[in-house]
Amino acid sequence: MFSIRKLFKAEPDPREALRPLWNAVVATARAPHWYAVGDAPDTLDGRFDMISLVLALVLHRIDDDPDQALAGVQLTELFVTDMDGQMRQIGFGDMVVGKQIGRMVGALGGRLGAYRAADGSDELRAALVRNLWRGKEPPADGLAHVMTEVAALRGALSAMPVAELIGADHLPETGA
To answer: What contacts 139, CB < 8 A, 6 or more positions away?
Structure first.
C-alpha cells in the first residue's frame, strides 16, 4: 500500500559513504607535523592548502581506477559542502560564500594538476612554495619535511587498492 511518508522520505545521500575518507583527509592534513616540523602556515589559508594537498593525492589515487570515478566526484562534493559550512560558520554571508567556493574549487583544480608531480621533483617544490607558502621561500628543513611526507603519502596511497581507500576511515601512516 502507498504511504504518504514515502513522498517526503529523503533518500540516503550516497556521498555519505565517503564521509570517513573525507574525515581522514582532513585529519591527515591537520596532523601537527605539517605545521610544527614542516613549517606549513597554521592559518585558514595554510589549512586549506594542506587539505587541498592531501585531497589532491587521494583524488590522484582514485583516478588510477576509472571504475571509481564517481567516488572522486563525490569526495570532491564533500569538500565543497564542508568548505561551504566552514565559511558560513566563520560568518560569511550567502553572496560571498558562493564566490569563495568557486575560487576554492578553482584552486583545488589547479592544485590537482600541480601536485601530480608529487615525487620530490623540482615541480613539486615549486608548487608547494607557490601554493602552501604563497610564494614566500619556506625554511629549507620545513620544505624538505613536507616534500618527504608528500612523497611517502603518495607511495603509501599507491600501494593501497583504490576500493580499500574509498572505504577507509584513515589514510596510510607515513612515519611522521
So the answer is: 39
How far CA 51 is from CA of 42, 100, 125, 142, in Å, comes to 12, 16, 17, 17
Angstrom distance (rounded) from CA 71 to CA 46: 26
Nearest in space to 48 (alpha carbons), one of 8, 108, 88, 110 = 108
Supply the DSSP string of 148-172, one letter for each residue: HHHHHHHHHHHTS-HHHHHT-SSPP
Asked if 50 and 41 touch (Cβ cutoff 8 Å), the reply is no
Q: What is the pLDDT of residue 2?
A: 54
Taking only the tens place, the pLDDT of each residue in 92-125 is 776 777 777 778 888 888 899 999 876 778 999 9
- The answer to whether the beta carbons of residues 145 and 37 sit under 8 Å apart is yes
- Considering only CA atoms, give the Rg of the chain: 18
**End-to-end C-alpha distance for the chain, whole angstroms:** 58
> CB of 170 within 8 A of CB of 77?
no
- The residues spanned by each domain of the chain are 17-166
Q: Give pLDDT tens digits for 36-69.
A: 999 999 998 899 999 999 999 999 999 999 999 9
What is the mean pLDDT of the segment spanning 114-142? 90
